[in-house]
Model the fold of this input.
Amino acid sequence: MRNVVIIGSGPAGLTAALYTARANLQPLLIRGVEAGGQLTLTTLVENFPGFPKGVQGPELIDLMQRQASEFGAEFVEGNVKRVDLSKRPFILEADAGNIETKTLIIASGASAKLLGLESERKLIGHGVSTCATCDGYFFRGKEVAVVGGGDTAAEEALFLTRYASQVNLIHRRDQLRASKIMQDRIMRNERIKPVWNSVIKEILDPEKGEVTGVKLQNTQSGEETRKKLDGVFIGIGHTPNTSLFRGQLEMNDVGYIITQGGAKTSVPGVFAAGDVQDPVYRQAITAAGTGCMAAIDAERFLEAQH
Ligand code: NDP
Done:
């Protein structure tokens, strides 16, 4: 029987592991399929406090894991296939076998949706990004593209105008899905150029290991063109990794777990931290902060049971 099981090994899960380990709760952390989370898809992280010269995303994850290990956190590879949150102790069916736990911290994150191109996979972190706040700074004076037509894409495009000389907003239709106010801002901004009715067929050039442009196809005429670019931001949305908990925890209409009073979910003893409950900020530092909150909430919950 475990005191605390944590699902997910991004900054939220690892911070929860550090805090619960230091509280002598011997946490077990299940690393999940995308071990390390979204930071492992990025290169230099310059906005995590404490690293004046920046730190590589995967290295930051490794440092966090080592710090939690120092205090006795245990880690297992693999995923959780099923959970039963209907009664305590909670039962988790994991790749490593069944686990019973008094509290559960869900830090399974959200996955940025991708276009699904091989070239995109090869160039992620090398000119292809899913986070303008994280990587926009690297594109000062450069020409970039944002893909998508919703609020995420609009926000990313507007943010990027601080740095990029031009932001091409590539959308597969001729109408944005973004809210009216964001549409107005996009249309008024001289640095943003909408590229309507277009999809990216290929991101160039995986051979060179950097983004040099894109191959576009017009969805109306089928015509293919090339455009020179220095970076591509994929802004087609995120999917919270919550399918395991559907029907067992309160979620918003697109599947983010609802937390209140700190990191508490609708089931006592179950806490959520990081992007799995945050459609707004989505930063490593906010994920780490909510991981800390979840750990303290779990510790207090266990104390109150005695
Ligand atoms: P949305 O689902 O609203 O938009 C996704 C966009 O990406 C759509 O324009 C869609 O095109 C396009 N898209 C999807 N898949 C592909 C693909 N494979 N290839 C090309 N284009 C694709 O997601 P968002 O993340 O933008 O927003 C999700 C929710 O979060 C919304 O409710 C939004 O309002 C909210 N949000 C709010 C923010 C805020 O208030 N600050 C910031 C960000 C999000 P199409 O339109 O043709 O379907």
About this structure: The two ends are 16 Å apart (CA to CA). The longest strand covers residues 97-106.
